[in-house]
Amino acid sequence: MATKKPETDRGHIEEVKISKPIIFNGNEITDLKIEIDHINHGINKKTKRLNVKKRTNFTVNDVVRFLRELNDEDIEADEKKGPILKFSVRVNCPVPGIFHKKEFILVFDTNENKKNELHTITIVPGW
Description:
This protein has 127 residues and is mainly beta.
């Protein structure tokens, strides 16, 4: 079940516990942190705040579908800062609708100290 965290400049962060783990880089991911407002609105480069106009309308369940595309994948991190590993991966949209099968860039990180957790930062159109 998803729970909402307090709003920040990047919007709400949804915390989701999934019953069927996603196996990513050999770890069983069961806890997801999803920046749902950041995903749907994007961040204004000048103000560093959420854009007013939405670019997508993905739900938390839609984001979980994107993340399930990572199941059984072993991917090298783009960047490492302490225990935090940051990734950016191109994924074809698994969600039925106007974006189905269109390419998106999924940006997320993992924490070597919390191997069962994945934090989805954003999903941006890859076209």
